[in-house]
Specification:
Elements: E1 8-10, H1 20-24, E2 30-33, E3 36-39, H2 49-53, E4 59-61, E5 74-79, H3 93-100, E6 107-108, H4 111-128, E7 135-136, H5 141-150, H6 164-178, E8 186-192, H7 195-202, E9 214-217, H8 218-231, H9 242-245, H10 252-257, E10 263-267, H11 269-280, E11 289-293, H12 309-320, H13 333-338, H14 360-376, H15 390-398, H16 408-427, E12 436-440, E13 447-451
Parallel strand pairs: 5-6, 5-8, 7-11, 8-9, 10-11
Antiparallel strand pairs: 1-4, 2-3, 12-13
Length: 452
């Protein structure tokens, strides 16, 4: 994969070069140059951290719009479980599904039901596979990208089972074909809480088959859904269990795995990095299943949601426990067999690694220069240079993308040295202007002052 698509975009005119984004980016994918932020595409994982922290709303996520629905005769909505937590618990899951039918969709397939199936498949996989440990869920595409960029040695820890989003689209389209609709005329549209899932659809992992045709953000559909719900809708039958619905909040995946599996949940991309560092060092082997969520609070904390993630998690749990939601049981055994437990045959590959030079000898030489450059920098990681850390600046200097004087401390040092030299020069007076110079007496070696 040589090119990268990213749903996270920068609106240059809004950017004021405040450096908030470079401090929070987990992969050091952002620099500020000439007063504007810029994104290093091979490092970006579309986690949405920059969208959250930008005070000027200069970072956005590019999703599809309702107009894309017109390209398909039969349109299926795939609501993320996080969507149900956006309405203060005032409406049931069935009502929210029903409201989607009035926004131009012909059918609704709950991603939470696909989460039930993925849970069952994962339980079997964890029980069958002994190593490595811990096994890591692939449900969060931002975490998968993070591992590709920063922790490639942990790629074998990823569970080779498809995401609920893609599994739901596959199931929904097959059901539509069974009803008599042509596959080419059937469109599956995911309602997403985060930009990473947009990228996962637009540019799926190599060797992956993508079944989702479009992605609408929760922010885009929320207002329209709320108006429809207030006017009254027909309630659809809920197919997902409470456990599947709870996948929308941090800890939902792990809870669905049951008490027989040793699980650990970590949410928030920087917290995830800390745990993955532990795993990389060979720790946490006593954990069977590691649930990693890039967004704080899980998907309900996604950058494209509306409600505060703490409130959304509370509302989601309330809906999951409501009457009419099926009990978690043996989910879709026949479907699991039919779809080969939604297994992924090919392993995910690491992103193109960071390289100082394609020539190995030159790369080693540049690495030595990088270390020496880093030693000369103050090590404060202040971000004033437009890079997140002094090491990142040293890398940019060695690659010819920055100069040492981009560091304000090195610039001040050079300016101070220059000022001192200017003062020394200013104190000198040429002999023709009556300056005094020292000469040595050849007889006794003593210095005499001569006036020109």
């Amino acid at each position: 994969m040589t090119g990268y698509f990213h749903s996270v975009r920068l609106e240059t005119k809004k950017c004021k070069g405040c450096t908030n984004c470079i401090r929070r980016c987990p992969t050091e994918a952002i620099r500020v140059r000439e007063g504007r932020a810029c994104i290093i595409v091979e490092r970006c994982i579309d986690c949405g951290e920059c969208i959250r922290v930008c005070p000027n709303k200069a970072k956005t996520a590019v999703s599809d719009s309702y107009e894309k629905l017109a390209a398909f005769q039969y349109r299926i909505a795939l609501p993320a479980p996080a969507l149900y937590g956006q309405f203060k618990g005032e409406y049931t899951v069935g009502q929210i599904d029903g409201a989607l039918l009035q926004l131009g969709f012909d059918d609704v397939f709950e991603v939470a039901y696909a989460a039930d199936l993925i849970t069952a498949a994962t339980q079997e996989y964890v029980a069958e596979v002994g190593t490595p440990r811990p096994l890591i869920s692939q449900a969060c595409p931002a975490v998968v990208s993070l591992i590709q960029v920063r922790f490639p040695l942990l790629l074998p820890h990823l569970i080779p089972i498809d995401s609920p989003m893609n599994a739901a689209a596959r199931l929904a389209k097959d059901q539509a074909v069974a009803k008599g609709y042509a596959r080419a005329d059937t469109g599956a549209f995911f309602i997403t809480p985060c930009p990473a899932k947009i990228t996962a659809v637009r540019q799926p992992q190599q060797h992956f088959t993508n079944y989702v045709d479009g992605v609408l953000s929760i922010q885009e559909v929320y207002g329209d859904l709320l108006q429809v719900l207030k006017s009254g809708v027909t309630q659809l039958r809920v197919t997902a269990s409470g456990a599947g619905i709870n996948w929308g909040g941090a800890g939902g995946e792990a809870a669905a795995m049951g008490n027989d599996v040793a699980t650990l949940t970590v949410d928030g991309i920087h917290n995830v990095i800390g745990i993955l560092e532990e795993v990389e060092m060979g720790h946490l082997k006593e954990i069977d299943y590691l649930e990693c969520q890039a967004c704080t609070g899980g998907c309900v904390g996604g950058a494209l949601t509306v409600v505060n993630q703490n409130l959304a998690r509370m509302y989601l749990k309330k809906l999951a426990a409501a009457d009419g939601v099926p009990e978690k049981g043996q989910q879709g055994t026949a479907l699991l067999e039919r779809y080969n437990r939604f297994g992924i045959k090919k392993n995910i590959r690491p992103r193109q690694p960071f390289s100082l030079d394609e020539d190995v000898a030159k790369a080693i030489s540049k690495l030595d220069l990088l270390e020496r450059t880093l030693e000369s920098l103050p090590g404060l990681d202040c971000g004033s240079c437009g890079a997140p850390t002094c090491r990142a600046l040293a890398e940019d200097i060695v690659r010819g993308l920055s100069s040492e004087t981009d560091c304000v401390f090195k610039l001040r040092e050079k300016v101070s040295n220059l000022a001192r030299k200017v003062m020394e020069l200013a104190s000198l007076v040429p002999p023709s202007m009556g300056g005094v110079r020292e000469t040595k007496n050849e007889g006794n070696g003593e210095a005499d002052n001569e006036i020109d």
